[in-house]
Amino acid sequence: SVPTREDHVDVLIVGAGPAGLMLSTWLSRCGIKTRIVDKRGTKIFNGQADGLQCRTLEIFDSFDFAQRVWRESNHMIEICLWNPDENGTIRRSSRIPDTIPGISRFQQVVLHQGRIERFFLDTMKEHGNLTVERGVLPVSFQFDETKAGDFDDYPISVELRTLSDEESTPSQRQQHHKSVDGQETTVNDGLFRSNLVADDTDDLIRLTEANHADQTELIKAKFLVGCDGAHSWVRRQAGFKLEGDSTDYIWGVLDIIPITDFPDIRHRCAIHSASEGSVMVIPRENKLVRLYIQLLATNHENGSKADRSWITPSIILQSAQRIMHPYKLDYTYCDWWTAYQIGQRVGDNFSLRERVFLAGDAVHTHSPKAGQGMNVSMQDTYNLGWKLAHVVKGYSEGSILKTYQSERKMIAQDLIAFDHRFSRLFSGRPAKDIMDEEGVSMEEFQNAFEKGNEFASGIAVNYGASPIIAKEGQIISKPQLATKIDIGKRMPSFKVLNQADARPWHLQELLKSNGRWRVIVFPGRLTEPSNMQRMQMLGKRLEEPDSFVQRYTPPGQSIDSVIEILTVHPGPRAGIELLDIPEAFHPYHSDIGWDYWKVYVDDESYHEGHGQAFANYGIDPSRGASVIVRPDQYVSWVGEMDDYEEMSRFFAGFMRQQFAAKGAVDGAGS
Ligand code: FAD
């Protein structure tokens, strides 16, 4: 059929799960022309992924909706480990904090994926008037590779077809459950959307071929991003594969309001029984509790699907009852259940010529135990979004797009390795004694759990050297000037006070996801004339018409819109006046006057204590340092506070000069 309509877009996103929605949120914030389509007629309303790691909350906060999640979610504070005692009866053997104390200003929380998707949809609508086009299926793909190097071109063509209501809504069986008191409840079929059910994309494409000729649209795109889950259609078009372990596990998941005498039901628990297997207990929002049980390991080398007809909520409940014996467990209300099959796999490629990208489950699949699925998927596109926006806007060379694969493939590989180790420990039978080599030592399990917690938090992510991470190579960083800031990791956060109004802020709150690079200047004490002099010299250099800030800001745009200069001085707050500090650090806008939101101080607040930012960042308050932070909050460079030349060389490595008619420092404020 011939498409009846045609559209040109900068970015076409296929799939509106967590990965797709994070990307469309970024792009809508940056004003990039984006379309996002999903073959399903509705978003999900309950179940699926639920764990949100502290790094994910930091990211949500940078988009201004973490508070909605924080308020609605259940906060996980403690993990209890339960193991069999010498008589084989389960006992609580230890308690450990769920989130490592001090690692972030947030802790791990749980809230189901449907709510997270809701928050994204609201923020996309609010900030970019972008909505998901549902019941829309891509049916063909063409890519003119000869044009891949020209970022003004639209080398990708994708045909989209609008589905009917029935086509976009797979039927969902109802199932009945009888509880101990004889009550019968009805629950939707949890295998709906599960990967135990065969993917219907190809059937849909065939089905729609004949009768939807009038509802086809041709999209010409600069970039295509496949966020279309484990069966990814985009991955197949790009000719890429998932590689990895062929041993698959089936996990049963049950979301219930539990009726139980188990004392730790409101804690996250890992329970190993002597011989009945293991269960993970996840206390949830709205009085719910999620139980994860590994049902069995199957080997389906020939690619056939495991028989799933025997999996029901009762089967999952009965397994949990056996593992948690002698405690009682039942329910009258089941919110959701599922079973799904785990492959521990990573994509061989994350991008085709830096024009087609894959993210989320489309490039990595693993078990749900560490609550990583949704988090790592969103963090993939959090990494990609600003890079695409900067290339589309012409701020950056296309070369920065190569760092998507170099940065995220490593994370995916680490994740699979972690999942491998953890799976064996979680699923194995507890060792009876020290001679029991086949059993899993519970000490080893606890150690792995504690270590795994740092990895799982997302805070440990440490990107390798590249043009945008100056760890080694041409651009010289001086990490010794900020001993507790790691180049390649996200900028840690401590409280600082606004110089103009004394209000305390977490430093990360100043690093909103709006596409700006930041240079954070930490000068030495400004009450010392020599330090003030260094500030003045740096300020003068920044204001020159050919400075890196001026050079990379398009004419007519606010001077802080591409590279924002923030200052945190070591105090005391009352020791200086804002206007003593050179203008480059608090620019003057003709419409709003001085910018009062750029200069901060490390000092005691009236109500929230002292953030001790200099000490916590390992910066000497007599000497200072400067830090370059990427639009996604990762640290690119650390150097002398006034090392203008090195900063300039850093940006010259990948930014594009905007040939601004100079003097254009005015414009709307932030
Ligand atoms: P997805 O959330 O899978 O989103 C992909 C989207 O793409 C979907 O909306 C889909 O409709 C759409 N799509 C797919 N193909 C096409 C196409 N051809 N055209 C258009 N649109 C398409 N993780 C946990 O941590 N804990 C859990 O308990 C848990 N339970 C899960 C239960 C189920 C049934 C499933 C499927 C996954 C579960 N996961 C769980 C995994 C977690 O949901 C994923 O890791 C996470 O959602 C990945 O996000 P994503 O955006 O990459 O992909």
What's this model, at a glance?
With 670 residues, the chain is an alpha+beta fold. It is 26% helix and 26% strand. It has two domains: 5-457, FAD/NAD(P)-binding domain, CATH 3.50.50; 479-652, Phenol hydroxylase, C-terminal dimerisation domain (Glutaredoxin, 3-Layer(aba) Sandwich).
Could you walk me through the main structural features you see in this protein, from its secondary elements to its overall organization?
This protein is 26% helix and 26% strand. It is globular. The protein folds into two domains: 5-457, FAD/NAD(P)-binding domain (3-Layer(bba) Sandwich), CATH 3.50.50.60; 479-652, Glutaredoxin, CATH 3.40.30. Residues 299-303 and 660-670 have low confidence and may be disordered. Strands 1, 2, 8, 9, 10, 13, 21 and 22 form an eight-stranded mixed beta sheet that branches. Helix 1 runs parallel beside helix 4 (113-128), helix 9 runs antiparallel to helix 10 and helix 10 packs antiparallel against helix 11 (442-457). The longest helix is centred in the middle third of the chain and has 26 residues, at 402-427. It starts with a strand and ends in an 18-residue tail after the last helix. The protein is of the alpha+beta class and 670 residues long.
Q: Key terms for this structure?
A:
seven-stranded mixed beta sheet; 15 helices; eight-stranded mixed beta sheet; FAD/NAD(P)-binding domain; Glutaredoxin; 670 residues; alpha+beta; 32 strands; 2 domains; binds flavin-adenine dinucleotide
